[in-house]
């Protein structure tokens, strides 16, 4: 076969298209499929720090999941955190978007600065806020002292009722700009003529929002919330730097817990079972959400 | 010479039969127009000739060798696209030179060729601009320039004028015709516009539902259409059709009026009269009540109804008036079709 | 409507925008200041808002002690993996768009790979790296980042390539280019903006990664995010180093937001919003 005819064979659409996609499929199988198979196998074996038993031992690790209160607590933390942080980010992001939607000198400069938190590493965001909330040399307590008019010395990452709010503040600080940007883009695309028509028809603010604005921004809003919800569900970095899941297991999320089981307690097989549980839950939620979205359409 | 032969070309999109058993020959140097309503398969056919569309059956030969299985670049054809397909990141000069560079033409030759094409198309002043800086008509010229710099066997045009406004279209039509005369190359031109087909073609291939309806020089098709579809497709405003009864040399209209001077044997026909076959004439045998008059300047179009059939007559501007008007019909130029099959009856 | 834009409403809006912007930028400002404060100022009570002088000694320390090596690691792993992921993902996207490879489902499957939480696959990957002796190598990290970013690149480039008119490619094919040449000379130049934007995001994802770097590196190949967390000791926390190292990680990102604004929306929304 000459080089020329070889190149022409490779170029046939039926060959060419697989040639192009093969590397991608290969790497995705490597990080997508291989780990899943490995997890599945491991979760039925008995491997831990104390020894490795490679024979199949049935579903005992899955049974153990049900009695593991620390697991369910961490799952509850994750879900609650997501359920609280997401609406806050959404509402704040929306209000911010409304503010920037109108004429504003230096708009793009403001937007660039507001976006910074979202772009930087969550590790840096977490470190920064750990610095901010330090009870003595952090500025947060100082500012609160000025407002309160007396000395405030809140132990943000020790006091049980403050540690979640502290993480929440960091998280909301980092990701509200994301929501803002998405909603700002969506709101800019709302049909101005529809809004004007509604104004002429004498529609109330609420009706305009319900009937025109909301349907128009809905698709983007749903996607933005989906992206954020999936990120929040696997939140790790910010908590790792701010509290490492502490005090005790107070701020342990499912990712932190899974990390601890796998890499600190080396309960390999059990950690595999946990990973499967997480993937299972996520798949259920995502499939359910996509169905909902499809129904809406 | 570059002689293109298509033999029983078929194309399916899934179950949809887009091109059905199409065969024709195009001798070298001819200007052929593939025309038909949208969805008739004309563009598919053109793209199949270019090699952009794989055909499901049949064979194509160019210069006597089969090109059916060849990649587009091995067919030596040049093509002008409907959207012009100019590369926005290349200057006009580089756009025109693109095909030559792809074929590793020496720089010196590229320069002369590009300069020549720019000269022919009168775009020499824009060579260093970018497509976004050009008007629609100028972009169209660049697109044509990119095709003609290449020494191709076939030049394919896929509705090249449909994105231009009416005035520019008339001008470009003329230039394309001139270009063909100057180059003497084989042009295959696809359009849905019957005026473009009539004015440009040496030969028209009229397609309907993926099949050839009729092939021939434009005036042949216009004056001797094979069937009512072809007759209706060519001509603007379109031919009027009405069911009539021919009896003893007279055409009996459904409303009872009789028009003498018909040479057809007795029977029932679909009668085809082009608007220009009518003349306003005090002595005319046809009495029509003109409803709407559309003046276009020299001529006016008058609408009337015969037993509910919508008819249009092209009349002298001042002769077209509302109300009862006597019309005469150029009987020998009108056409008769079989009412069942639509086939023309000679 | 009455035009009040010139009046107090405009000033109110500007004031509000300014205030909000300050809230968002203040923590970064604080971090930056920590990195240039003297140790006394860092631990001063009440906190010092503006250092008496800018001292870059903490940066000097990072470079002298070799800690800045971690930033170099981040740069290499993120940079090389971005190039690889872009190449692999873009060709895959082209295949999906132009030849409908795998139909609609393949694209969905590929993007769904992004939904799996890293922690779930971290351990099997750790085992794989151990057995292939890739632990603590930049090579291993590059491969992993590449693999993790391919779905994103494929998904994003699919959108950008869909925006390219098909006739441009057809014209090039007729003009005599091979399919490879069409990809190189038509598709890539046409998708230039998209390529750039996607590459920047791919870089950011790798640059910001923490979990994989934490699990898969020890000393040689640690990235800056791991290094930052390393300064949080159980006894003492090296705030000046945290500040300086974090700033080294943030500076490239500042450059990104300054130059990339018009691409950010599409990149972040996974293509749902076309900016």
From TrEMBL, chain A:
GO CC annotations on file: plasma membrane
Location(s) in or outside the cell: Cell membrane
GO BP annotations, alphabetical order: transmembrane transport
Family: Belongs to the binding-protein-dependent transport system permease family.
Membrane topology, as annotated: Multi-pass membrane protein
Name used for this protein in its record: Carbohydrate ABC transporter membrane protein 1 (CUT1 family)
Domain ABC transmembrane type-1: 75-291
Primary location recorded for the protein, binned into one broad class: membrane
Keywords: Membrane, Transmembrane, Transmembrane helix, Transport
Pfam families recorded: BPD_transp_1 (PF00528)
Transmembrane segments: 15-37, 75-101, 108-129, 162-187, 208-227, 270-290
Hydrolase keyword on record: no
From TrEMBL, chain B:
A Pfam family this chain is assigned to: ABC_tran
Keyword ATP-binding: yes
GO biological process: carbohydrate transport
Similarity remark: Belongs to the ABC transporter superfamily.
SUPFAM superfamilies referenced in this protein's UniProt entry, alphabetically: MOP-like (SSF50331), P-loop containing nucleoside triphosphate hydrolases (SSF52540)
PROSITE patterns named in the record: ABC_TRANSPORTER_1 (PS00211), ABC_TRANSPORTER_2 (PS50893)
Domain of life: Bacteria
Organism listed in the record: Primorskyibacter sedentarius
Designated name of the protein: sn-glycerol 3-phosphate transport system ATP-binding protein/multiple sugar transport system ATP-binding protein
Keywords: ATP-binding, Nucleotide-binding, Sugar transport, Transport
InterPro entries the record matches: AAA+_ATPase, ABC_transporter-like_ATP-bd, ABC_transporter-like_CS, ABC_transpr_MalK-like, ABC_transpr_MalK/UgpC-like, Mo/tungstate-bd_C_term_dom, NA-bd_OB-fold, OB_MalK-like
A cellular component annotation (GO) from this entry: ATP-binding cassette (ABC) transporter complex, substrate-binding subunit-containing
Signal peptide coordinates: none
From TrEMBL, chain C:
Single Gene Ontology BP annotation: transmembrane transport
Annotated Gene Ontology cellular component terms: plasma membrane
Key words, A-Z: Cell membrane, Membrane, Sugar transport, Transmembrane, Transmembrane helix, Transport
Pfam families: BPD_transp_1 (PF00528)
ABC transmembrane type-1 domain ranges (all copies): 71-260
Annotated TM spans: 12-32, 69-94, 115-135, 141-161, 193-217, 237-258
Localization: Cell membrane
Topological relation to the membrane, as annotated: Multi-pass membrane protein
Designated name of the protein: Maltose/maltodextrin transport system permease protein MalG
The species this protein was found in: Primorskyibacter sedentarius
């Amino acid at each position: 076969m000459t080089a020329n005819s070889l190149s022409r064979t490779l170029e046939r659409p039926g060959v060419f298209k697989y040639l192009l996609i093969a590397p991608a499929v290969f790497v995705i199988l490597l990080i997508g499929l291989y780990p899943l198979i490995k997890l599945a196998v491991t979760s039925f074996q008995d491997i831990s720090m104390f020894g490795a038993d490679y024979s199949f031992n049935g579903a005992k690790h899955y049974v153990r999941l049900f009695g593991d209160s620390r697991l369910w607590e961490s799952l509850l933390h994750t879900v609650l955190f997501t359920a609280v942080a997401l609406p806050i980010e959404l509402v704040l992001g929306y209000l911010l978007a409304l503010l920037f939607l109108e004429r504003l000198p230096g708009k793009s400069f403001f937007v660039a600065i507001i976006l910074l938190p979202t772009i930087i590493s969550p590790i840096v965001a977490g470190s920064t806020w750990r610095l901010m909330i330090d009870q003595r040399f952090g500025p947060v307590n100082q500012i609160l002292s000025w407002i309160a008019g007396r000395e405030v010395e809140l132990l943000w990452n020790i006091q049980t009722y403050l540690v979640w709010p502290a993480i929440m503040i960091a998280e909301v600080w980092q990701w509200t700009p994301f929501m803002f940007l998405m909603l700002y883009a969506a709101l800019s695309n709302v049909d101005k003529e529809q809004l004007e028509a509604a104004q002429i028809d004498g529609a109330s603010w609420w009706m305009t929002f319900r009937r025109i604005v909301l349907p128009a921004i809905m698709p983007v809003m749903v996607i933005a919330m989906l992206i954020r919800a999936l990120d929040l569900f696997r939140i790790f970095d910010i908590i790792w730097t701010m509290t490492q899941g502490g005090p005790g297991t107070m701020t342990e999320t499912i990712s932190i817990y899974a990390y601890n089981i796998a890499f600190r307690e080396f309960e390999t097989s059990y950690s595999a079972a946990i990973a499967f549980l997480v993937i299972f839950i996520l798949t259920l939620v995502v499939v359910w959400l996509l169905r909902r979205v499809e129904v809406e359409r | 010479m570059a002689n293109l032969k298509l033999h029983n070309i078929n194309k399916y999109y899934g179950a949809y039969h887009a091109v059905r058993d199409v065969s024709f020959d195009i001798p070298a140097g001819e200007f052929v127009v593939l025309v038909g309503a949208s969805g008739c398969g004309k563009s598919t056919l053109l793209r199949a000739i270019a090699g952009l569309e794989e055909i499901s059956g049949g064979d194509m030969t160019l210069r006597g060798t089969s090109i059916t299985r060849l990649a587009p670049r091995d067919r030596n054809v040049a093509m002008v696209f409907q959207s012009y397909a100019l590369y926005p990141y290349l200057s006009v000069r580089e756009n025109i030179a693109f095909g030559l560079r792809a074929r590793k033409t020496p720089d010196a030759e590229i320069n002369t060729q590009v300069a020549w094409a720019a000269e022919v198309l009168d775009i020499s002043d824009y060579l260093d601009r970018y497509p976004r800086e050009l008007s629609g008509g100028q972009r169209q010229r660049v697109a044509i320039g990119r095709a003609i710099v290449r020494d191709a066997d076939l030049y394919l045009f896929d509705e090249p004028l449909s994105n231009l406004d009416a005035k520019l279209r008339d001008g470009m039509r003329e230039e394309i015709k001139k270009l063909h005369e100057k180059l003497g190359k084989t042009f295959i031109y696809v359009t849905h516009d019957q005026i473009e087909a009539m004015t440009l073609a040496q030969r028209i291939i009229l397609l309907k539902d993926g099949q050839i309806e009729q092939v021939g020089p434009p005036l042949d098709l216009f004056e001797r259409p094979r069937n009512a579809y072809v007759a209706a497709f060519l001509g603007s405003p379109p031919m009027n059709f009405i069911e009539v009864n021919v009896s003893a040399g007279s055409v009996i209209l459904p409303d009872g009026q009789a028009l003498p001077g018909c040479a057809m044997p007795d029977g029932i026909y679909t009668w085809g009269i082009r608007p220009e076959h009518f003349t306003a004439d005090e002595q005319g045998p046809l009495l029509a009540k003109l409803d709407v008059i559309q003046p276009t300047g020299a001529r006016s179009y008058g609408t009337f109804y015969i037993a509910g059939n919508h008819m249009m007559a092209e009349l002298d501007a001042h002769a077209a008036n509302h109300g009862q008007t006597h019309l005469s019909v150029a009987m020998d130029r009108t056409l008769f079709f079989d009412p069942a099959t639509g086939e023309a009856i000679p | 409507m009455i035009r009040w834009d010139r009046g107090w409403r405009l000033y109110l809006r500007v004031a509000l925008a300014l205030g909000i912007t300050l809230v968002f930028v203040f923590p970064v400002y604080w971090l930056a200041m920590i990195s240039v404060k003297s140790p006394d100022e860092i631990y001063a009570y009440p906190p010092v808002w503006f250092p008496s002088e800018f001292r870059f000694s903490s940066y000097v320390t990072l470079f002298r002690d070799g800690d800045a090596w971690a930033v170099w690691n981040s740069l290499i792993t993120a940079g090389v993996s971005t190039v690889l992921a872009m190449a692999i993902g873009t060709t895959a996207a082209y295949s999906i768009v132009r030849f409908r490879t795998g139909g609609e489902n393949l694209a969905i499957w590929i993007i769904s790979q992004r939904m799996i939480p890293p922690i779930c696959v971290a351990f099997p990957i750790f085992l794989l790296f151990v057995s292939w002796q890739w632990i603590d190598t930049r090579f291993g990290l590059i491969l992993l980042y590449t693999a993790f970013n391919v779905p994103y690149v494929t998904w994003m480039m699919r959108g950008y390539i869909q925006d390219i008119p098909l006739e441009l490619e057809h014209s090039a094919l007729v003009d005599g280019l091979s399919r490879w040449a069409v990809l190189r000379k038509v598709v890539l130049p046409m998708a230039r903006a998209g390529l750039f934007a996607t590459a920047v995001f791919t870089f950011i994802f790798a640059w910001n990664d923490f979990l994989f770097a934490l699990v898969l590196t020890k000393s040689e190949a640690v990235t800056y995010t791991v290094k930052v967390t390393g300064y949080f000791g159980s006894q003492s926390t090296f705030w000046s180093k945290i500040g300086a190292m974090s700033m080294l990680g943030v500076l490239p990102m500042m450059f990104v937001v300054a130059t990339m604004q018009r691409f950010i929306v599409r990149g972040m929304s996974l293509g749902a919003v076309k900016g």
